[in-house]
Every structure is written in structure tokens, then in C-alpha cells.
Specification:
Elements: H1 6-24, H2 34-42, H3 47-57
């Protein structure tokens, strides 16, 4: 079995972020700001914390 690459780890994080965000705010399907998501990923933010920060930063009603 091969070791996961950086791209694999990023893809897994993005999928987890998308799943967690859409579970809380389904109306955002197709409207995620992926640059913001990548920012959270690159700064080592946990998925749950990134979703919270994303929602707060965009003043999204849940």
C-alpha cells in the first residue's frame, strides 16, 4: 500500500470539510469558497474548527 501524498491528505481534508459544512448548512452545496477552505487547511485548522470559523466569518445563519 502506498503512502498518502500531500495532495491525498489535502483532498481528504477538503472532503471532510465539505461534508461537515454541508451537514450544518445544506444550502451551501455548490457555493463553498475553496480558497478559504484551503487557507484553513494550510494553517492546520481542524475540520470542525474550520467549519465554525467559515460560518462565523461569512455570517451564515445555521
Amino acid at each position: 500500500m502506498r503512502r498518502p501524498t500531500k495532495a491525498d491528505r489535502q483532498a481528504q481534508w477538503m472532503v471532510a470539510f465539505s461534508d461537515a459544512l454541508l451537514a450544518r448548512v445544506p444550502r451551501l452545496a455548490g457555493r463553498i469558497d475553496w480558497d478559504a477552505a484551503k487557507y484553513y487547511y494550510l494553517h492546520g485548522t481542524l475540520v470542525e474548527d474550520a467549519v465554525d470559523q467559515y460560518i462565523i466569518a461569512r455570517n451564515i445563519e445555521t
